[in-house]
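Workshop exercise sheet. Pairs work together: one partner reads the sequence aloud, the other fills in the structure field after running the prediction. Swap roles for the next sheet.
Pair: D.N. / O.F.
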Amino acid sequence: MKKYKYVIVGGGMTGDASITGIRELDLNGSVLLISAEPNPPYNRPPLSKGLWKGKPLDSIWRKTDEKQADFLLDQVVTSINPKEKTITVNAGDFYGYEKLLLATGGKNRHLPFGGEYVVYYRTVDDFKKLKNLTETKQKFAVIGTGFIGSEISAALAMNGKDVTVLDIGPGIGWNIFSPDLNAHLNQYYQEKNVNVIPNVKVSDMSKIRDFIRISTDSGDEVEVEAVVAGVGIVPDVDLAEGINLKVENGITVNEFLQTSDPEIYAAGDAANFYNPLLGKPIRVEHADNANAMGKQAGRNMAGAGELYDYLPFFYSDLFDLGYEAVGLLDSRFKIVEDWSEKYGKGVLYYLNEDRVSGVLLWNVWDKVEEARKIIGLPAPVKESDLIGRIS
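Structure field:
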């Protein structure tokens, strides 16, 4: 059995960022990164953004091999023994650790039908599969209008494909955007050759010759040549639950990113952490959090003892539109809209219990730090306090 000072379970952005954090304080401590994917760490946002606009595939790799770490790719950790401080991988090998990081990310939700006909879009291999499909297919369906669904449907349409989007809600981004902005986006997508079918539930899927027939609960049917599903993820907490770590909407961590076992840390999509600015525990599935939280976990594993009190931001590109946002965005909250150009440029403030919980910067750039300060305003916050606050 080979022993390492640091073992990282998960080969995504969080895992890579943790090595960066470790190396800022410990240049020589041995590191092992274990990834279930066959590929080394890479940046995920370009998979649904830049790569569809001509950015080269080689640009996504994070050069983790330059950080003096060992790798086990295409391997799954099957068990952890906290008492002995060992982990076992599916190949049957054992490895020892002093500090362990669970950067296990999330697992795709799956539809109860469709099987191999559906591309559940998350990895670089999913990108390659979908990109290959675009070489021979013209008609695509995208199920879901969240971040992945809205971005992939735009990417396919920009590459000349006929796209139909189906969703259980009112349309593009309905769970975070105001009803008026949601309606505008539906129309905007229609104008970009994306057929948006809102308020339907996909009830079945079958292969008919060269087509895939999608049936909905409304009785409608759509025939396409390929299907992409962006129906969300669930945090991968199997290993944590297997050793009785505290789990609640993810792996619960303290302000130093330690789990209920102080020698085991967690970060990224799978981690649930308390954010003092929002005053509540949150779990964030975005790149900025993966990078910042992963790096902080690495530093703390190396002895930094620093609080993680960062409120991450996220962003998206939708054809020619784009936004940055910070905090919690929920279309059920009271939304104060401050447009300098209706649906073209503006700021949306999300109020929950008379305080700002989130800020959406719609085609407004370099204002994230100002937005964080507004989230920190004490309650009660009035609409008049917000109009014109961010130019």
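Discussion prompt: The chain is about 20% helix and 30% strand. What would you look at next?
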